[in-house]
Amino acid sequence: MKEKWLEWAMRLQSIAQAGLTFGENRYDLDRYNQIRAISVEILQEYTGISYEKIKDLFTSETGYQTPKVDIRASVIRDDRILMVREKIDGAWSLPGGWADVNTSVSESAARECLEEAGAVVSPVRIIAIQQADRHYDFPYPYTVYKIFVECRLNEISFRENTETLEAGFFALDSLPQLSTERNTREQIEMCFSAEKKEVFEALFD
Description:
By secondary structure, the protein is an alpha+beta fold. Helices cover 36% and strands 28% of the residues.
């Protein structure tokens, strides 16, 4: 569950962002900037991340704050699941990333598989839609919805790219080191469980 300090910082940031977007009075805008600065200070104090990095993360957001959407593809072949090794931390995750605008969930899943693993897939069904901070210890400074999509593999040929080092298939009992900011063992178990069922009711929250 989300720590209270993180929840407070996120709420302050959301209020500040909406105020800076819709406010007109320059005195009010100054107060919203002060609220945003307080939220940055809270995160910096508890996470150890530099003030400037957090500030850049928050100030890059404009408009009414809404959840971010992360798409993860579950591609299972012969009881082994497709994973990619991330350049950012050297650990492994399901192919995926932030959803792009003007792109559907299935299109995002297929694109991520192709870009990160060289896999051509056909999305089949939604496995789960989860609020990240209810399933991770990682202190996300914003709300993230993670959508897990079961996909059928058509073909695969890994190619060099900017995000991943390699791709491979792994059995549940021999998973590599996981990039736990992106996926947990429990979520991968969930994907295996769904794949074994002809009818699977999508999970949420």
